[in-house]
Design the sequence.
């Protein structure tokens, strides 16, 4: 039986002229206002464009060597689509696909979008469950936080702000396990860092990037947000913050702009030194994590 792995990304554009169409997908078919597209274009330009798709290419290439089967990637909200990837794999004779969402706390959402297409393509799709508490993943994230803490050794009181993308509160209230999963992952990572970090380190969790592109859902968004978290750190008399975007696996606009530009500016306004833990991107230890997630889904004769 010919097998493959399909990595499922949220999506990003390489051509900024595609932003309006991309954000329409994010907004569940609701076209964005022109000023929103203009603001998003400004953000992408400020970071030199999103590297996410190029990182996905590198990850797929490295993982293929690691697991010994073809590895493709696709986007839930842009191109290549799940349909593009699954039809291509089927055309190449693949019969069974190990499906690994690159959104470790939201596997069910990604699987729900892929399963109907897999049926149409006549391939067996085996989906990874949420894997945000995978021990190798938590260790890799903890390693990067410790690295950031040690980059500027200091006896100053420090808050490690772990972040994940926010969701409309209505989705969480309806039973989505996302918040619970994120908080469990953050607790595991914090425990691993605490045993290796300076005694003056405190850990907080913030939910970022609330509602700029929108999702078609109104109302409140999951918090606390970054502004409130930084206000609390300053009120406690802390002097520096280390951001760790544990909800994201690779550099994208939410990391490179929302944190390195916006959150950094907010920290400076509060006389807080800003540092950020590196993203996992296509690093070898992250490829080990993905192999750990994908391998049990593959059929071994």
Sequence:
């Amino acid at each position: 039986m010919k097998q493959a792995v399909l990595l499922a990304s949220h999506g990003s554009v390489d051509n900024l002229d595609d932003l309006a169409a991309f954000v329409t997908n994010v907004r569940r078919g609701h076209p964005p206002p022109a000023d929103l597209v203009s603001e998003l274009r400004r953000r992408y330009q400020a970071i030199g464009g999103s590297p996410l798709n190029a990182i996905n290419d590198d990850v797929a290439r490295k993982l293929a060597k690691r697991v010994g089967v073809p590895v493709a990637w696709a986007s839930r909200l842009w191109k290549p689509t799940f349909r593009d990837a699954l039809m291509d794999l089927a055309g190449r004779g693949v019969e069974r696909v190990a499906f690994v969402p690159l959104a470790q706390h939201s596997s069910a959402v990604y699987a729900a979008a892929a399963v109907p297409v897999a049926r149409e393509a006549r391939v067996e799709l085996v989906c990874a469950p949420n894997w945000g508490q995978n021990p190798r993943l938590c260790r890799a994230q903890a390693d990067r936080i410790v690295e950031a803490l040690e980059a500027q050794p200091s006896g100053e009181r420090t808050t490690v702000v772990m972040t994940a993308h926010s969701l409309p509160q209505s989705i969480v209230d309806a039973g989505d396990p996302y918040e619970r999963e994120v908080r469990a992952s953050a607790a595991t990572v914090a425990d691993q860092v605490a045993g290796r970090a300076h005694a003056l380190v405190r850990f907080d969790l913030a939910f970022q990037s609330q509602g700029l592109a929108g999702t078609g859902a109104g109302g409140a968004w999951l918090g606390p947000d970054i502004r409130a978290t930084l206000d609390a750190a300053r009120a406690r008399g802390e002097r520096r913050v280390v951001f760790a975007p544990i909800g994201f696996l690779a550099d994208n606009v939410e990391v490179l702009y929302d944190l390195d530009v916006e959150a950094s500016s907010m920290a400076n306004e509060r006389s807080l030194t800003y540092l950020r833990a590196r993203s996992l991107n296509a690093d070898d230890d992250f490829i080990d994590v993905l192999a750990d997630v994908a391998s049990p889904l593959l059929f071994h004769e």
